[in-house]
Write a structure and sequence with these properties.
Rossmann fold; 39 strands; 33% strand
Amino acid sequence: MARRWMPILLGISLMASGKTPPPVPAPEDAYLWLEDVTGEKSLDWVRAANASTAKELEGTPAYKALEGDLLAILDSKAKIPYISKAGAHYYNFWRDAAHPRGLWRRTTLASYRKAEPEWETVLDIDALGKAENQGWVFHGAQFLRPGFRRCLVSLSPGGSDAAVVREFDVETRTFVEGGFSLPLAKSQVSWIDADTLFVGTDFGKGSMTSSGYPRVAKVWKRGTPLAQAKVVFEGLETDMEATAYHDSTPGFERDFLYRKPSFFTSETFLLAKDGSRRKVEVPLDAEPSFHREWLTVKLRSAWTEAGKTYAAGSLLAMKADDFLAGKRDFAVLFQPTATTSLEDFTWTRNLLVLNVMDDVKNRLSVLTPGTWKAEPLKGAPKMGTTSVSAVDEDATDDFFMVTRDFLTPDSFYMGTLGREPELLKALPAFFDASGLEVTQHFTASKDGTRIPYFQVARKGLKLDGTNPTLLDGYGGFEVSSVPYYSGAVGRAWLSRGGVLALANIRGGGEYGPRWHQAALKANRPRAYEDFAAVARDLAARKVTSPRHLGIMGGSNGGLLVGNMLVMYPELMGAVVCQVPLLDMKRYSHLLAGASWIEEYGDPDKPEEWAYLKTFSPYQNVKAGQTYPATFFMTTTRDDRVHPAHARKMFAKMKDMGYNVRYFENIEGGHGAGADNRQTAHFWALAYTFLDTTLR
């Protein structure tokens, strides 16, 4: 406190003596005060910025109609009620106009097959919130097997990642009196048996990592205070997290301990009944997983073991007991090529489904363990995006499958591997896609790398450079950008003559670990060069021109478009930057930011800040430049990416006199909104801005 007032006291003293006080150095960050998430001064600033944006955008003739259209899509009773199986029932979480915060409900498979299933409400989140005077957002439930009567329900206030956890009985539809309950935190919980949990939570000072996740895992017995839970595992404060998990697969029950030193590294241990532990000896950046008698290992880097080298991006398998006995004769289930990568894999009771991407198009195959003979998945489409999940991997080879693309609404199937799947539900068309087409294009980045992107546009599009075009991308964390169906995008953009482009830039997972690692840390600018190459290609093909090109991205994609704004402002006419990272000097000290150091680098190390500062938009924005119109959007309740990134960037650019606007949803977490109305409002603002700016 004394240091805080020293410059002021010094000034008074010198003035009293008749001397001129030396100038007080300006703080390095004049907008640091906006990091106070819920401070009254910060929130007053947010309300004023929101009001200015509302006055500009909500007053346009098209805004209200668009917001109503988007809300109607989000609230539509014709949406697919996706289900998951727990015991004899199939559960669904549903939101509509009458239930803005949602119903957790269930039905039988026979009823679900009907056009109008008969639903039984398990938990009404709106009614619960009203009774408890809290804006609860449902974050899912974890069932106790094999009975599936008790579960641990997670509820977030306003949509933050942090949630309370409460034990719930799905038969009585009540929270269990005196049952397991955890206060608000980013907790990790796992049932061991009916009276015992593994739990990682905020136990007090020193129990959380610098990333804000549990560092300590304990065993908690029913009826005992949480403070008496017994420690079974601890990580370091600098780790991302440390957790414990119980695998309840009948006949293969196992207890696991996990330590994640960073986002892409982990250690896995088997915990014995006597408390001893055994490490699963695989590379630190590999992903081991157990299914019944099998161990699979997904590699991020090449691994030489027992005289054999396995390529990065490969999937390996062998009997778990053989591996633990020291054998290393892995079967190679997948090995990448120049155009393929393993997007995902899914176990059913007896079979393994591989989801491979070939030039960003899904190819699914079914493997028989042991022989590992592969056959194409029957009924899988040859185009579009397809995902598969097991219905009940403990008991059957049944699976759910979802297919979609930019112009084809979702279809939801159920089947048994080896047979043609049954169509259960199909999403209706929420916009008129007739006359539209999807094409895939490739362009060369600055270093010659081949970069794919998708384009959705009218057939026979007039190539005169005047088409309003929206370019989207992500390029981080090995996450792939794949075709999707969005009634909101279709209604708000495509049906109004806009062109949509989706870039598959480095940093993502479209071509496996090599694609991701090509844009890590000091190489991050490769992602921005790729995105710039796609923007230039759209202009070179005369699809659009900078005056009519808008770009959009959220989270890491917000960092992407923030860097495009300051590095390549000449390439676009509008930027929508959502829940973004922008201040890369401070990011590792804000909320979960420390967990992303492996992706970006550590700004507290001078040698890493030396390259980080080259792609930190907040530090690189300058006065006197020609920047495109920009819209920053975030949420107060985002406890993953701090809202101050967007707040400070907007404030800095506004004070420099740039054409910027701002919107911050008070709820919503790391997303658009806590309910459909908030989400519709968020997206209506974004598309109204794009439409008025780019036409």
